[in-house]
Amino acid sequence: MDSVTRKKQLQRYEPPEWVDGLKIVPKYKVQLANANTPIQRWYLPGIPDGVEVYIKRDDMLGCELTGNKARKLEFLLADAIHQGCTSVITCGGMQSNHCRATALAARQLGLQPYLLLRSPPDPGNHVSVGNALLNRLIGANIYLIPPTAELVPDIIPRMKQLATRLNNKGDKSYVVPTGGSTSIGLYGYIDGYNELLSQPRIPANLQLAAQLDSSPKLIRV
User: Fold this and answer.
1) Of the residues 3, 87, 96, 183, which is catalytic?
2) From CA 52, how far away is CA 204, in angstroms rounded?
3) Does residue 96 have an active-site annotation?
4) CB 109 within 8 A of CB 6
5) The whole model's pTM is what?
6) Does the structure show a pLDDT above 80 at 126?
């Protein structure tokens, strides 16, 4: 896919008024997800009388991209295309959902995916199952790194080195950190929350599930 065709996929993004104070605001997004996921009531055991629990079904955004990852990638990959990039580099574990989603979305948008995956000493069957298999089936460029590799001292330098090598070959690359958690990726959550506000069934007591450093948290709004 040429640059002109890729840029035709960009959609102008207008952020909600309540984020006017943020310094970094993306100009574009791309459509990867099925927007306006439903809010459904769930009848869970042990719920006190008079309490109703509703869940926004972001698992229905699109099965191959999954949940909040698709929301973030709509902004991250739009930024990559806007900058004229032709490839995307990211990292994670061998069975990383983020890496699989990034690779699939990149292929969908005409970008080359490059994945740095933490691998056990003997990969064996690990590369032939689950997300690792999907990454291979779509032709992602995969680099296996030691399982003990740490993000800052080990993985980020490797991603920068790969980006430099690709850039020198005329393949401009866009580096996406682990999980796509950047000031641009943040707008995936902003967009999702703004979508929630526009839906008719908004709980009076809203709690958002968040995860930092593998530790689930509940944020009350």
Assistant:
1) 96
2) 10
3) yes
4) yes
5) 0.89
6) no
